[in-house]
């Protein structure tokens, strides 16, 4: 089910993506609404499930994680649940997606040192084939997808 998004909703979502800590009044100035009107629209967007929550973007280096890695994971026959459990229980995995193709999962790791990689990956090697790539740099931060507005 697709939710209808108008140009004001899109403008509010864009403002939140740029800085979700802005006051409703500040967002209102940007989009041409009062602060309370922005609040009502945000409440409606949350109710419709368009806004799913709010979070924080961390500077990983500032908290000691100097390396990020992407891990493609292909569980051995009958081992998918065990692999998923191992990943879910290891806090250095920041994200994991089920994907199509040769691999079943793609996960993102935060590492303080490259030596940690062996400790994290060893339990997985008993039940999955893996392929790890170290992230050198990112072209851009996570961003909103294109939002089509309904007139």
Descriptors for this entry?
151 residues, transcription regulation, transcription, four-stranded antiparallel sheet, alpha+beta, Alpha-Beta Plaits, 2 domains, Arc Repressor Mutant, subunit A
Number of separate strands: 4
The fold-level CATH name of the largest domain is: Alpha-Beta Plaits
Label the CATH architecture of the largest domain.
2-Layer Sandwich
Count of separate DSSP helical elements: 5
* CA(first)-CA(last) distance: 18 Å
Radius of gyration: 20 Å
CATH class of the largest domain: Alpha Beta
Can you offer a commentary on this structure?
Strand 2 and strand 3 form a beta hairpin. This protein starts with 6 loop residues before the first helix and ends in a 17-residue tail after the last strand. The model has no long low-confidence stretch (mean pLDDT 94). The protein is built from five helices and four strands, in the order H-H-H-E-H-E-E-H-E. The protein is α+β, with helices and mostly antiparallel strands and 151 residues long. The protein folds into two domains: 41 residues, Arc Repressor Mutant, subunit A, CATH 1.10.10.10; 75 residues, 2-Layer Sandwich (Alpha-Beta Plaits). Strands 2-3-1-4 form a four-stranded antiparallel sheet. InterPro entries: AsnC-type_HTH_dom, Dimeric_a/b-barrel, Tscrpt_reg_AsnC-like, Tscrpt_reg_AsnC/Lrp_C, WH-like_DNA-bd_sf, WH_DNA-bd_sf.
């Amino acid at each position: 089910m697709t939710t209808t998004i108008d140009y004001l909703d899109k403008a509010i979502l864009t403002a939140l993506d740029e800085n979700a800590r802005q006051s409703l009044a500040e967002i209102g100035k940007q989009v041409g609404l009062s602060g309370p009107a922005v609040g009502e629209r945000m409440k409606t967007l949350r109710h419709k499930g368009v806004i799913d929550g709010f979070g924080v973007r961390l500077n990983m280096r500032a908290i000691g994680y100097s390396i990020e890695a992407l891990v493609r994971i292909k569980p051995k026959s009958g081992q998918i649940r065990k692999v998923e459990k191992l990943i879910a229980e290891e806090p250095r995995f920041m994200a994991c997606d089920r994907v199509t193709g040769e691999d079943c999962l793609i996960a993102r790791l935060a590492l303080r040192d490259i030596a940690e990689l062996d400790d994290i990956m060893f339990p997985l090697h008993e039940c999955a084939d893996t392929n790890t790539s170290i992230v050198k740099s990112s072209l851009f931060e996570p961003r909103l997808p294109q939002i089509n507005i309904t007139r």
